[in-house]
Amino acid sequence: xxxLNSIVRDTAPTPDACVIWLHGLGANGHDFEPxxxxxxxxxxxxxxxxxxxxxxxxxxxxxxxxxPAWYDIIAMNIDREVDERQLRVSARAIQAIIDQQIAxxxxxxxxxxxxxxxxxxxxxxAALSCAQPLGGLIAMSTYxxxxxxxxxxxxxxxxxxxxxxxxxxxxxxxxxxxxxCQQLQQxxxxxxxxxxxxxxxxxxxxxxxxSRFLCQCLGLKA
Length: 222
What we know:
The structure is a single chain. This protein has 222 residues and is α/β, with parallel strands linked by helices. The chain has five helices and eleven strands; from the N terminus they run ββαβββββαβαββαβα. The strands form three sheets. A seven-stranded mixed sheet has the order 1-3-2-8-9-10-11, sandwiched between helices. The termini are far apart.
């Protein structure tokens, strides 16, 4: 299993909570690093933010060029033909980060996974199959790539999930975010869904919703 290099940012000494944030295709861990101060989390919150870097691999839909990617995308049809084996390898690497944080003293129920686009697909797999009870999952502009194969763990059967998507997203069509919500509901989850008038990106209103969700998951008070 690949050990991921990561950027680690603690908002205060001795963090008692952790957010593991996965970037999208072609980006790296620095992509979402600037979002930490924008979240406006309560003063004194001691949270460790971890931004892993995806490995460099050939991506079929980009002509086989090597780039940071959590898995290969074979075809960009509406159902997204992807290399599920690679996706699960990435998910296990994220679960290894979770295990490391638990070993360092952070309660797994105070660990939240967040992922954008391709990173969100990995976050879905990692969170739903995790044997440790997690604090929450944030799925941004993404899709549930392993809906037909994910081995959901009963430990996270009531996992708080927030699904966020742009109504003008031409990269990951909004219908894929909606399908993910529908599938989650069929499995018994109660996902919180928000849409925004934006493309394949992040907006201020979305950051506000993420901040509120994190405060709920981690029991933070202003």
